[in-house]
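Kindly review these tokens for lecture notes.

. . .
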Amino acid sequence: MPVSPAGARREPCRKPARRNADTSGPAGQEAASGRSAGYDTAAGKPARRNADSSKPAGRNADTGKPAGRNADTAKPAGQEADSGRSVGRNAGTGKPAGQEADSGRSVGRGGHSGTSAGRGAGSGTSVGRGGGFGRLVGVDAVRGVAVLGMFAVHVGPEARPEGARLLIVAADGRAPALFTLLAGFSLVLARHRRAGWAERYRPLLIRCGVLAVLGLALASLWPGILVILAFFAVYFLAAEPFTRLSTPALTAVAAVSVVAGPLLSFLLGPPFGYGTSGRGLVPEAADLTTPAGLGDVLCELLLTGAYPLATYFPYVLAGMALARLCDVRERAVARRMAVWGTAAAVAGYGAAWLATHVSGARERLLAAIAVHHPEAMAAADPVREVLRAQYGAVPSTSWDWLLVADPYSQTPLETLGNAGVGTALIGLCALAARHGVGARLLRPLAVLGAMALSAYVVHALVLAGPAHGAGSWSAWIAFSTAALALTWGWQRVWAHSPLRRGPVEHALRLATHGRSRRESPTRPAGHPSA
């Protein structure tokens, strides 16, 4: 595996100061995850009809169903609805009225709706103090793992394939892919039909606008990471038309995008002047002050940035397809996700290894590097040296670049491998959450994952200030411990308030939807798990 490109703090980076580190941030969603930041959802169903779900940034509203059918849905960036009903029987849903959270089935057909109160731990959901079911613990826990992986890349020691540093190698490049996959997954869980254009698109546009402004502002502070929030705003806008596709059509589009996205990036690089290098920038507020800067920002968001739409949107589509196809509350489905996700990861990374080490692709790449990147030939590994110089895509100097699977190369094989890792983690965590011990062990990670946007913003601010340039095991331990403790404490303190979602998540919810009449400090929407 290659050395981590989180380079500004550890090695010279051949890019402008604002590019000199890599990021694996979540984002407004789930970038910071897009997830709802409340650990429990509002009471919306009788105990026998619970269906909790992991919600994405800003997709919230009441379904309008009677009390016996899923009423409250997920809110933006971590916001569940307060139903005003008995707290002991809460369960959010992200589906259209009359459908269960992520099965897409009608309420009367079982699936998620057949979950009974007595099956708490076995359902893969969190159980609140009142006995009601909350969010999908397994999905939130995976996002929490992604947050810790992001910390490892940003403030941990340099990634090397040796000893404990293999953990950094494992996180390098996979954390942003995992956040993006989960963003797509949560978009489907929170999907529901609205009556009018304003109710459907105004919250989406406001949410994306807030994420974009926040991303531009954080990037302008030069925190030493490549801030991903502005890219997530584009992902959410681009995903809206695909939420209307049927499940077979969405699955087919997702499969094609895994190849089409990286191929499009490879072919369009030379016409835009990025055939050999120059990719990996993130937009900043200052870029918006001139017409040329506006053009650069658009190009970075779509094609040449650190997390461009062309190469990262396939993760969003893959996550959406997974949420449509896989009901993670069912044990057999979660087990299949773990198995098939592992198989996809082995196929992606394994095919890349065979192509580069057996079929001769590496020798052909070295020949291309000698011509187009002669300065890299002095490095111990010229291939990795070239890839460390840009993020989000490979150079367009040889077709063999599309056969590698190094971090941030975003080739079809790396995309397949990263998506496989994410799928396997969702399945494994969903299985673990079905058991009492597993659910308790996952709970701190799930709380952190539910407040991932707040964690992302705070860590970027700290890196822009007192911890700028940090890079050691002690820094990673400090960031991780603080994040786990503070998010847990926050949700305990604000258990009876909409603020339980997290400070940034709550602010985003207010900007998107305003204050709900159902939400009040005296009638909590739910409780964090004990």
Remarks:
- Residues 7-34+139-513 form one domain.
